[in-house]
Every structure is written in structure tokens, then in C-alpha cells.
Write a structure and sequence with these properties.
Oligomer: single chain
Order of helices and strands: HHH
Shape: elongated
Helix content: over 70%
Strand content: under 5%
Number of strands: 0
Number of domains: 2
Length: about 90
């Protein structure tokens, strides 16, 4: 069985271990290429979606709202957040 260290010395392996090592390397590269292809497809889908909606809605503002909502959803102490936010909003007016 191939040792699970980060750097394998192929010179110390038996023929069967070298063959297994080759198979693992090939499997890794094939799976990585599949993922990269899927990422490229998703990027294309995202571009198409943006093009479809950019003339229908203010996407820049919409994406800013989405960012704010994600940030607010991650706040642990919501009550403290709301108080501080209110104070800062009041002081800027």
C-alpha cells in the first residue's frame, strides 16, 4: 500500500505500488479537470444570467443588497449589531 506521506519516493516502491501511484495521479488529474470544466460552465452561466438581467434591473445595487444581507445573516450578536448600526446611521444624518 502507498504510504500516506506528502512526498512519496517512487524509487523505494514496488512495481505494483508504482502502478497504483500512477493510477492515483491520473485519477486526481482527471477529477481536477472535470471540476475545472464545471467551474468554466458555471462562470458562463453566471455571465449569461447577468446579461439577461442587466437591462431589467439595477444589478450593481441588487448585489450590494445581497452582500449586506449575507453580512447581517452572519452577525452573532444581532441586538448589539442593530444598536451600533442605528447609532451610526443616526450620526451620519
Amino acid at each position: 500500500m502507498i504510504q500516506k506521506n506528502k512526498q512519496s519516493c517512487v524509487g523505494d516502491m514496488e512495481v505494483s505500488e508504482v502502478n497504483e501511484y500512477k493510477k492515483l495521479a491520473l485519477e486526481y488529474v482527471q477529477r481536477l479537470e472535470t471540476i475545472d470544466d464545471e467551474i468554466d460552465t458555471l462562470k458562463g452561466d453566471k455571465k449569461t444570467l447577468k446579461e439577461e438581467f442587466e437591462k431589467k434591473i439595477d444589478l450593481k445595487t441588487l448585489m450590494q443588497v445581497v452582500k449586506v444581507l449575507k453580512l447581517e445573516a452572519g452577525v452573532i450578536h444581532k441586538d448589539t449589531f442593530d444598536i451600533i448600526k442605528e447609532a451610526l446611521e443616526d450620526s451620519s444624518q
